[in-house]
Amino acid sequence: MKSSIVEPLPMDDDIIIEHLYKSFGKVKALIDANLRVKRGEVCFIFGPSGGGKSTLLRCINHLEAPDSGRIIVDGIPVTHAKTNIDLVRAEVGMVFQLFNLFPHLTVLGNVTLAQEKVRKRSRGEAERVARELLERVGIPEKANAYPGQLSGGQKQRVAIARALAMNPKIMLFDEPTSALDAEMIKEVLDVMMDLAQEGMTMVVVSHEMGFAKAAADRMVFLDAGQIVEEETPEELFKNPKEERTKQFLSQILY
Amino acid sequence: MPWWGLIVLLAFLLVVYLIYTSATYQDAYRFLVAGVKVTILVTLISFSIAIVLGLIAGLGRVSKNVIFYTGASVYVEVVRGIPLLVQIIYFAYVVAPLLVQIVNSLGAFMLQYTAIQPLMGLAHTLTNLHIQDVDVTARAIAGLAFGYGAYEAEVFRAGIQSIERGQMEAARSLGMSYFQAMRYIILPQAIRRVLPPLGNDFIAMLKDSSLISVLAVRELTHLGKLNRARTFRTFETWNTVTFLYLIMTISLSLVVKFIERRMAFEE
User: Residue B242: which pLDDT band, with cuts at 50, 70 and 90?
Assistant: First the structure.
């Protein structure tokens, strides 16, 4: 599956993004974005809305096709025309702001479907994996419920289990707590924290600065389509270098 | 029950009473009831084909494949611009003979170039196929199905487009192909949503199937014409025809209402 088109890569880079450009009509969503995410790293992307955070994340698994630039995920060039993107996506889990659970399937169905159809696991095997994961995200008793019967926090935990069921090497989180009521944010962040501690490579777009402080290896500030600053959380919170970063932090930190 | 329901029910009871008591009504009813069977059968077959055509064309209408999209769009736009009656006539007297001619020349071609014995027999059959061998009911069904397929295509397109974009994205993000995402995620939800409009179109087709009486298919309307010619009882004949159509359409529309209510409850 590894393509020979790409020169040998340093083994510890899971995601490489080089000179990425993307516009929607006249709006430039990304301008020359460069980013590397190491294996096992938790990369936290933040910034004002409309700054290109989600676009950058969605380019990684090609839900958004960039105008130019190169993205390599787990050694596979996502931006290469001949790459079978479905194979890459199976290795990259994604969690959405609005959960996007499949409403016509039960929780169990949500978590088993792609295992059976993409990973070609048997029904029994898929269900075993699903029940294990539901246990892990703390809602084993909801296996036979439909998404419509769950709270927001429960929905998002099912969505995480659904992504994890594919045994992804990388997890992408697109504002996973932004649509949640305050009292449900923690239950989702707890699951994400567990994942981070287990060494999952994660790219998280979020406004949860507390999570960044506790779990992120690196914080990336994205504004107006450009990566303004990249720093460890300690450094970034203590002494941000760029003016725009300072300004943004002063606006959101109380 | 609403007032209109009561009035319709009373009218029904009156016709039922007449059929039981009046000899002319009874005679008309006995003659016409065979047409009900043909009408229902023709509608069922035509609608099944129309749904398949519509699903394929509807998928084409949302497809990014230029050829698939263009083909589906031409079909939908052309068919929707032609009166259904003209389409039925066109299918029966233009398309069907053309197909027969093609089959004939295929047979002739095989006769010329084949020496294999069993194929020769087939070639002779193909060459000797005549347009009169093609059942007129089949031609009528083809016309109806082709015409309605275009409308069902738009129903399916609307249903597919009504499913939130996030559903496709979530499915694709799990590594499913476009086809798998359609098959397991989008279509099951879309089809549920379009059941009521599909039901309404089924009722509409049941009524439009009366158009194939121009091809002398022995469905309800054609039998109505025959019965009037046979008995000269215009009044009784068309009262009974109308009554039989209404029985079918109103009971079907009750079924559609039931489905609608159940879906509203589920969502």
Answer: very high
User: What's the pTM?
Assistant: 0.89
**CB-based contact, A113 to chain B, within 8 Å:** yes
Chain B residues with CB-CB distance to A92 below 8 A = 173
pLDDT for residue B266: 65
Measured in angstroms, the CA of B197 and the nearest CA of chain A are apart by: 20
Q: Which tens digits make up the pLDDT trace of A48-102? A: 988 899 999 999 999 999 999 999 999 899 888 888 999 999 999 999 999 999 9
Residues B170, A103: C-beta atoms closer than 8 Å: no
CB contact under 8 A, B175 and A103: no
In sequence order, what DSSP letters do the residues of chain B get, joined into one string?
Answer: --HHHHHHHHHHHHHHHHHHH-HHHHHHHHHHHHHHHHHHHHHHHHHHHHHHHHHHHHHHHT-S-HHHHHHHHHHHHHHHTS-HHHHHHHIIIIIHHHHHHHHHHHHHHHHHH---HHHHHHHHHHHH--GGGS-HHHHHHHHHHHHHHHHHHHHHHHHHHTS-HHHHHHHHHTT--HHHHIIIIIHHHHHHHHHHHHHHHHHHHHHHGGGGGGGT--SHHHHHHHHHHHH--HHHHHHHHHHHHHHHHHHHHHHHHHHHHHHHHH-
| A contact residues 181-240, partner B, Cβ 8 Å cutoff | none
